[in-house]
Write a structure and sequence with these properties.
- The chain is mainly α.
- It has three domains: 99 residues, no CATH class; 140 residues, no CATH class; 112 residues, 3-Layer(aba) Sandwich (Rossmann fold).
- It is built from 22 helices and seven strands.
- The strands form two sheets. Strands 2-1-3-4 form a four-stranded parallel β-sheet, with helices on both faces.
- The longest helix is centred in the C-terminal third of the chain and has 21 residues.
- The chain starts with 42 loop residues before the first helix and ends with a helix.
- The chain binds iron/sulfur cluster (2 copies).
- One iron/sulfur cluster binds next to helix 4 and helix 5.
Length: 461
Amino acid sequence: MSEIKPPAHEDNPTASREGVREGSLDAPMRYPLAWRAPEFTDDEALYAEMQRIFDICHGCRRCFSLCNAFPTLFDAIDESDTGEIDAVPREAYWKVVDHCYLCDMCYMTKCPYVPPHEWNVDFPHLMLRAKYKRLKDGAKVSFRDRMLASTDLVGSLAGIPVVAETVNAVNGTKWGRKLLESTLGVDAEAPVPKYASKSARRRLKDKVGRKDVAAEPAGETRGKVLVFTTCYGNRNKPSIVEDLVAVFEHNGIPTALPTKERCCGMPKFEMGDLESVEKLKETNIPELYRWVQDGWDLTSPIPSCVLMFKQELPLMFPDDEQVIAVRDAFYDPFEYLMIRHRHGKLRTDFKQPLGKIAYQVPCHQRVQNIGLKTRDLLQLVPETKVQAIERCSGHDGTYAVKKEYAATSRKIGRPVARQVDNAKADHFTSDCPMAAEQIASLSEAAKATSPLELLRRAYGI
Ligand code: SF4
Ligand code: SF4
């Protein structure tokens, strides 16, 4: 198999990831996902690979505190007759799979055995392979899980005026949440997003399909940016897209919205539904590629969606030149602004200090290997100090709202909430609005404000 590298943006010194690994002398890399190969879903091949990697993890155990997948695995081994992986029943393997939400943190922050190490441990991709195989074998997907992964369909229904208000009102009551829990298995205490009756694409309709703009390049940035709004940004929190557009335009960067847009595919990816990911890609990639060909760079306000285009789709479709061109043009918004700052193209005439900010760095942004660009940019604002918290919120897409995992999810998120409370900051922020809501709900007093909104406030725009 050939190697696939992350995009080497100029302000991304760790794109090659040299020197950032513990216990490995070579720069780590990732193999493309061979999801169409017969072996990928072959029973014996999969179990053999699970047994091999689980055994390596058993001897290592560095990841015991990252999520609940590893404690589930280690408990199963410790409780087995021999205390070794060969005595663990295969059914127990699937419990490990169920607790993995593909945050990639084990691969990125802990594992010394990732490729090119000869042990070739890629735990998240093994979990993804198992999830995909289970679906291929005809595993039943519950109505709830299908609904939670169909973010654009649910958003377009729940976002209809009147329907949006009704859904929000019902979700805002105790009896409504109890009903949702007993009928669908959506945990009654988990924060669920509100729906906006006027989507970001409607609010910013003058920017949809906009083409005729002049741009000022700086470094590798071409100076005009297409904003992929995302399901969440479009239907749940349109203000995040408006803030992004306002901040970019204030910095002389013209913005536009794609003519058509569907879900990036991350919720389906996390379920292992790779065929559905491919269908979504067939709408999004040709559209985004056309914009890239017209000289536009790409960004999006949600880290998981950025990661989908930067990493997951290229790993699934390494030979698709449109996917690779889109990957190379896609930036995290703060990464983009900081590149332009390096070339003297970021406005620093801030009008309002922000004080102390407690900042949770979401996993799917850390995985992009771009460094803490959100922190660095916010700290350019005078009288502003950012305390970064690099720990998982436990939300991870849909894990937090599923009744059977919600308590575990809160357990993972609580230490972050404690750090936020102890920081006694003026603001609490996270690039991921879902992680932010989860942490705020576990905190004593923190209220989440997105970093784009904070930046907009600092500019006074
Ligand atoms: S990818 Fe994340 S959730 Fe999955 S096993 Fe690794 S750390 Fe746990
Ligand atoms: S994923 Fe790597 S670091 Fe984590 S327990 Fe397994 S072998 Fe150890």
